[in-house]
Write a sequence for this structure.
């Protein structure tokens, strides 16, 4: 059992990050618990994001001014560098598919198309600019919430992989493979456990900002499910990537706006 868990850990990090780990053999048995470890990639991203924010505060307090934009862009780039852009790729493919206004089957074909369309390029620029604007307004409180949100987004994404219907019944790719081969009862129990703990942690650490982060995540998850079913007939790996990127953006925005409002009204 320990060996299977260790292999599932390595496969999760190999598939969803650029973090170097020992090689693992890709078998159905070894992938069965991968979703349990998927959120820990978010823990790495969150810790690194928090570290960059603290470094900025430390250097600024000692007279070393690099400018807020320098560290903001570092924090925006960090998730892409750690994940290799796998989720951003899914976000871009989904934007092309949604903007096509084609029938469901054609949308699914667009998701598999390796070429980036004009809507993907435009969406990428808008997304990164929005993230830069949001991160430029981070305070210590909202930065802590944003750091925790990377774990939450992957917990919710993992739950969707295990519970949402698959859009492609055959030849559904790695997402369908992870869903089919997962030890679902165990993985769901673990992911729901993470979710409960994260609710308490976010509220304790962020107060109102933590609550708004959870609300943003819940609303985005509801939209994600509805969009998957109505537009694609189920979920795919690209749609999971789209959700993860959008969820992280909206959680960060909710935390920042709520933090500003709470401090502005003196609550």
């Amino acid at each position: 059992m320990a060996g299977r868990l260790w292999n599932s850990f390595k496969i999760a990090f190999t598939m969803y990050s650029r973090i170097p780990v020992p090689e693992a053999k890709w078998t159905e048995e070894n992938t069965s618990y991968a979703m349990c470890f998927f959120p820990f990639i978010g823990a790495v991203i969150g810790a690194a994001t928090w570290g960059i924010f603290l470094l900025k505060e430390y250097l600024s307090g000692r007279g070393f001014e690099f400018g807020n934009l320098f560290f903001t862009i570092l924090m925006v780039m960090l998730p892409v560098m750690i994940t290799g852009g796998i989720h951003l790729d899914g976000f871009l493919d989904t934007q092309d598919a949604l903007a096509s206004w084609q029938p469901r089957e054609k949308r699914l074909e667009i998701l598999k198309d390796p070429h980036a369309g004009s809507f993907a390029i435009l969406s990428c620029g808008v997304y990164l600019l929005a993230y830069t604007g949001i991160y430029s307004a981070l305070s210590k409180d909202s930065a802590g919430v944003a750091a925790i949100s990377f774990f939450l987004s992957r917990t919710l994404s993992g739950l969707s992989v295990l519970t949402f219907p698959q859009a492609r019944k055959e030849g559904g790719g790695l997402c369908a493979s992870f869903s089919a081969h997962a030890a679902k009862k165990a993985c769901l129990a673990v992911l729901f456990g993470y979710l409960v703990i994260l609710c308490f942690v976010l509220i304790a650490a962020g107060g109102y900002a933590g609550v708004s982060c959870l609300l943003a995540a819940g609303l985005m998850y509801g939209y994600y499910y509805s969009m998957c079913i109505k537009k694609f007939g189920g979920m795919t790996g690209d749609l999971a990537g789209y959700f993860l990127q959008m969820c992280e953006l909206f959680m960060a925005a909710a935390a920042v706006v709520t933090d500003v409002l709470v401090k502005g009204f003196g609550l």
